[in-house]
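4.2 Preliminary Data

To establish feasibility before requesting continued support, the project team ran the inverse folding procedure on a target of 380 residues. The structure was first converted into the token representation described in Section 3, and no sequence information of any kind was made available to the design step. The complete token record follows.
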């Protein structure tokens, strides 16, 4: 279906970013790269392209003057578009939010084109305020793309299981706009690429701050990698992940190497709600936090898998996520102290949701609460 894009000329085109207009509570703060590439290619072929900002606008386009409507969804937890829209012959849909790892690849000529960085400009203009500037930075100030694609790890929770290795995706100049102050890389596992040195040096040579938005693999850190990465300009702190307690020994070994060269704050994603039932999962979360907090200036960030919502103890994940992901609370209060603080701040009674989640979990698993809920982690 996507190959039909190559033959579209002189048409009226609507493009809809399903994550952008989702009502699930998800706040989209990042442009859809595939849609920007599709827009760029279609404009090159003299098509009139417009970003649609609602499904009602898409419906009007279907019965009005839009020859085609392209809908993309990156996240599977974003709202599903209305079925009658997806079934229309004028609508072409795609993205991992629809198909996960079975998502079709863009045709070569579209994949390897400069993204249309103007696609979102009218939406930004109508919503922008100086107070909200940080929410629009990645639409306005970043060159966005993949230097590499793929990963060899085949993690069961990841959409990239179809890959066996990391491969070259595109040259930097394919998506690099020198007028933009920053670069954002979406690579899945950059440090597993055989020519990572050359690619990293090209980034350094731009003299622009950059970020690996998907994070880097701490388990692949060596002295050489840590030393060179420490010399780069970063937009924000480096991001890593500690998904499985079974990796504890390796993560600690690599953290010791990293800290020889890099003393600044780093963020660690901590996966929750996927591998285990809440009982063992909560223990794993606290053990991983304990390990990370042995090393200075680490900001843990709990990433709850969508399967966590299936747990009868889902409330404890809600509490833990809010506590851990707010560094000012995590390093000042124990988990129990934070739960009480959250209740007092909002004048809630002891039986409202925050305390109810705590109390219910503690009744079921008193030994876990006794061992972990009163610990204060220290930001060294």
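Position-by-position output of the design step:
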């Amino acid at each position: 279906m996507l190959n039909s894009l190559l033959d579209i000329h002189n048409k009226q085109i609507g493009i809809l970013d399903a994550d952008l207009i989702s009502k699930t509570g998800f706040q989209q703060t990042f442009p859809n790269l595939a849609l920007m590439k599709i827009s760029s290619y279609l404009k090159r072929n003299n098509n009139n392209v417009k970003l649609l900002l609602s499904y009602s606008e898409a419906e009007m386009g279907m019965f009005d003057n839009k020859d085609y409507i392209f809908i993309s969804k990156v996240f599977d937890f974003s709202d599903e578009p209305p079925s009658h829209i997806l079934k229309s012959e004028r609508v072409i849909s795609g993205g991992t939010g629809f198909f996960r790892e079975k998502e079709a690849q863009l045709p070569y000529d579209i994949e390897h084109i400069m993204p249309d960085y103007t696609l979102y400009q009218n939406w930004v203009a109508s919503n922008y305020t100086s107070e909200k500037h940080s929410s629009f930075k990645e639409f306005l100030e970043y060159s966005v793309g993949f230097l590499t694609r793929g990963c060899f790890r085949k993690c069961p929770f990841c959409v990239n299981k179809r890959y066996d290795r990391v491969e070259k995706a595109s040259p930097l100049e394919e998506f690099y706009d020198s007028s933009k102050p920053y670069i954002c890389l979406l690579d899945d596992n950059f440090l597993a690429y055989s020519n990572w040195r050359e690619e990293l040096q090209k980034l350094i040579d731009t003299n622009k701050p950059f970020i690996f938005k998907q994070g880097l693999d701490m388990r692949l850190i060596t002295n050489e990698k840590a030393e060179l990465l420490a010399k780069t300009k970063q937009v924000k702190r480096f991001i890593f992940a500690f998904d499985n307690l079974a990796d504890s020994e390796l993560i600690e070994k690599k953290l010791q190497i990293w800290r020889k060269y890099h003393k600044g704050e780093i963020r660690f994603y901590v996966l929750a709600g996927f591998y285990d039932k809440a009982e063992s999962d909560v223990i794993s979360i606290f053990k991983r936090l304990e390990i990370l907090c042995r090393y200075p200036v680490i900001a843990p960030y709990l990433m709850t898998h969508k399967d966590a919502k299936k747990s009868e103890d889902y409330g404890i994940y809600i509490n833990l996520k809010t506590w851990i992901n707010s560094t000012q609370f995590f390093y000042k209060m124990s988990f129990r102290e934070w739960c009480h603080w959250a209740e007092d701040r909002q004048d809630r009674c002891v039986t409202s949701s925050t305390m109810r989640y705590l109390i219910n979990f503690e009744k079921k698993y008193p030994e876990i609460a006794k061992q972990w809920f009163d610990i204060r982690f220290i930001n060294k």
